[in-house]
Amino acid sequence: MEYEYDQLLISRDESRNFVTRLLVQRAEAGGWELDRLRIGPDGNRRVVLRRKIIRQQQLWFAW
């Protein structure tokens, strides 16, 4: 299974409520899911989101 990744860097000044709403919005609108969340020593949040890449298989027709 293949995934597409998106990385976000969120400032420590943003509230937890704001970050939650941002991530929920991205999950509902774009199909993203949370892969990793790290809070650095400086307080910044490093977020990695992922979503499945669905490949359409090519159909071959024999005439």
Walkthrough of the structure:
The chain has 63 residues and is of the alpha+beta class. It has one helix at 16-30, and strands spanning 3-10, 33-39, 45-52. The protein has one domain. It is built from one helix and three strands. A three-stranded antiparallel beta sheet has the order 1-3-2, covered by helices on one side. The two termini are 32 Å apart. It comes from Nocardioides marmoriginsengisoli.
Taken together, the total number of domains comes to 1
What's the β-strand tally? 3
Helix content: 10-25%
Count helical runs: 1
Task: Assign an overall shape.
Answer: elongated
Mean pLDDT: 93
The helix/strand order is: EHEE
User: Which regions are unreliable across 5 or more consecutive residues at pLDDT < 50?
Assistant: none
Pfam families: DUF5703
InterPro entries: DUF5703
Protein name: DUF4177 domain-containing protein
